[in-house]
Design brief:
With about 180 residues, the chain is an all-alpha fold. The chain has five helices and no strands.
Length: about 180
């Protein structure tokens, strides 16, 4: 009599997929070694939204909007086979003279959070294997794309907080 194939959900690959999902979600939420987005932007004085620290070519809002756009781009790239990314670099940064008021600042933050939460929902989807190549994603896995988001966000949030420190607008208890 032929042996029945193992259909138990606890295969090594299933376990690796679950662990990868947990790590990706933790990184997107700013846990572990990653800075939490909400902590980075907490109590930001409105007078600094459009300020540039010395020797920095972009404002605090430019930087957050860049993070938001890049995260949105990768989210769309993962989930939409027909998506076309904006041109580089102009499609990924606001115009140098663009400014944000309180409403624009809030819109950027809420847009970032909504797209991050959508990435988390995508990663946590039970049917998704984050380790499998996505054909329209040049064979890159969802995990590979989400790792780009996590690394990129961490890099720029570190810059953002350092800028706040330089401008005297950082409370070290926030991190």
């Amino acid at each position: 009599m032929a042996e029945k194939p193992n259909t138990e959900p606890n295969t090594a690959m299933d376990q690796a997929n679950r662990e990868a999902k947990e790590r990706l979600v933790a990184g997107l939420r700013g846990r572990g070694a990653h800075l939490n987005f909400e902590s980075a932007v907490a109590d930001m004085p409105g007078r600094l939204y459009n300020a540039k620290p010395d020797n920095v070519p972009y404002t605090f809002w430019h930087q957050l909007e860049h993070i938001r756009i890049c995260q949105w781009d990768i989210l769309e790239y993962i989930r939409n086979p027909g998506f076309t990314s904006p041109p580089w670099p102009e499609g990924y940064w606001p115009a140098q003279d663009a400014e944000a008021d309180s409403a624009g600042w809030k819109k950027t933050i809420e847009g970032y959070q909504a797209d991050r939460d959508e990435l988390i929902r995508l990663v946590e989807a039970e049917e998704l294997n984050v380790l499998a190549p996505v054909p329209h994603n040049r064979g890159r896995s969802v995990m590979g794309s989400v790792l780009i988001v996590i690394d990129h966000n961490a890099y720029h949030l570190g810059e953002f907080v350092m800028g706040r420190q330089i401008m005297g607008a950082w409370n070290s208890e926030l991190a």
